[in-house]
Amino acid sequence: MSLRRPYAAVLQLLRNRQGLSQQEIAGKVAQSHVSQLETLKTTATVDVTNELASALNVKAITFFTLVIAANEQRAPRDVLLSALAELEALKLADEILPEQPRQLEPPRVAAAREKWLAIQALKSKGYSQSQVVLELGYSKATVWRLWSNEPGV
């Protein structure tokens, strides 16, 4: 479900409550973009939401809580309590979270690494390359390639 309408309503509400014009809250976000948000012609990014919240002297979490509350027709306090309950159920309520995603290994590299480990385990037990081919069912070329070299090296 689109959050454009409640987003626009909250943006207008906070701006009007503080007696600010679109121009006055425009900083890193252009006034024309603020206008497009309020008239449902565009959708805000996370960064734009953060900039607008700052210009409106609230935290982004406060702004977005109000958007969700408007969308669900619930009190902001109820939305926050529900969010806290979810965080506790996920065992994340008291965690310090990473601010950047970790570098993920592509699936094919992970699969090659698993093959390499299996080959190395048999190699350390004294198996020959031919025996490893028979034992693991890998092709001769795969065993030869991974016999000495770790994948990606």
Give an account of the 3D structure.
The chain has helices at 4-17, 22-25, 31-38, 46-55, 60-72, 76-89, 107-124, 129-136, 140-148. The chain is an all-alpha fold and 153 residues long. The protein has two domains: 4-89, lambda repressor-like DNA-binding domains (434 Repressor (Amino-terminal Domain), Orthogonal Bundle), CATH 1.10.260; 107-148, no CATH class.
Write the SSE topology:
Blueprint: H1 4-17, H2 22-25, H3 31-38, H4 46-55, H5 60-72, H6 76-89, H7 107-124, H8 129-136, H9 140-148
Helix pairs in contact: 1-5, 4-5, 5-6, 7-9, 8-9
Task: Give keywords.
elongated; 434 Repressor (Amino-terminal Domain); 2 domains; mainly alpha; 9 helices; 153 residues
